[in-house]
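Quarterly update, task 2.4: heme C-bound model.
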Amino acid sequence: MNPFTLKRFTLTSLMMLAAAGCGGAATSDEQPQAPDTQTEDNWNPEEQATTASTAQGALLFTKETFKGNGRTCSTCHSLTTGTLTPAQAQAAYARNHSDPLFRALDSDTGNGASYSKLLNDATVTVTIPLVANVRLANSTARSVTLRRGIPSTFDNPKLDPVIMLDGREPTLQHQAMDAVAGHAQGGRVPTTTELNAIADFEKALFSSAKMATWGATGTPAALPEGTTDSEKRGKAWFAPNALCGGCHGGPALNATTQFNLPGLPTGDRYAFAFVSQFNFAGNPTQEYIVTNPDGTESHVVSPDPGRLLITGNMFDADTFTMTSLRNIKNTAPYFHDNSAKDLAGVLRQYKAVTDMLGIPMSDQDQADIIAYMKLL
Ligand code: HEC
Ligand code: HEC
């Protein structure tokens, strides 16, 4: 991030906080300011913090540790992209081995001895309790700890009601409370005002002017048509009846148009792209035993069974949220386990799927799809 922007932003936030009585009851009745001279190429998402509540939220998001392990939200959700890359993790480690990003709970084996997964994949741990009808074959534990990538906090807070890679959080406020308790090992629970301010700030974060306009007006930004022949061919893969568009439909390319889960209508937000099944991230697998409604048992061996852990429904095994593909070029690595380090890595994953299913996809096809995705 441009340090000048950060300085200006912090000053503005502090002034607004002072005007609002510093941390007192947040007001959100200030007029949003028009973004000054910002274009798609010159977009500073944090400049969108324009009300007292968003300004308070900005400070909480970037500075408040809640008496925890030293982490803030922006330890993991950078203000440049909303997420964290392996390069950013490596730079933080090079600067300071005890940077708050490096805490034992996210080390390779939980004891703080090494951080190769965090450094190479930028994945951290999440701990999820098991629902009543799901158990582990080889352990009596009632929760599992899994490694996941960090989804971007841009665009989705305002535009997407489905929160988390498995949809498990009901609201942004509840999510923030759990993030403080989990990732930040917080020593105090945030107040309702603080949680609302964090949510307000997140809802003001957009990846581009186009997405901010969508957020403000509720009218989705049109999908790009593509200019070059390659981009136009790439777009054809996202037609509703085409391979990518069968799942990635709608204005954010995150809702099914045809390959929806059994029994569900189109527009479903969960699916699988064989990411857990192929497990290119090489995460350890566990065997899950699911007791179905009819009393039968199903067994799933997986590094991360995704939404199954939330619903206990076998149809959801290894399924994950489809997140928005808008501005996807900015938010590598990709997939819930960050197993694809760039868009070429995404296509390597899908090429493995098409090869398995006997669907042709040439090198040129892959280049076309990547060219189009860079426009989103
Ligand atoms: C240690 C890194 C880390 C920290 C610190 C952290 N997060 Fe996250 N965040 C994650 C990961 C990982 C996920 C996805 C987890 C999942 O889906 O299981 C996530 C998901 C989210 C999402 C959902 C995004 C979406 O599109 O579904 C939001 C919103 C979010 N975090 C906000 C916050 C806030 C607010 C804070 C501070 C209170 C915070 N995070 C602190 C790692 C972190
Ligand atoms: C059967 C449904 C389905 C199809 C078909 C499909 N996807 Fe996906 N896609 C998903 C799901 C589900 C995820 C999230 C998977 C995960 O994280 O495990 C995903 C994730 C992605 C991501 C990464 C998003 C992120 O932020 O990490 C990209 C990029 C993507 N898909 C592009 C494509 C392209 C290109 C095609 C066509 C070659 C395609 N998808 C076909 C369901 C599908």
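Highlight for this quarter: The radius of gyration is 21 Å.
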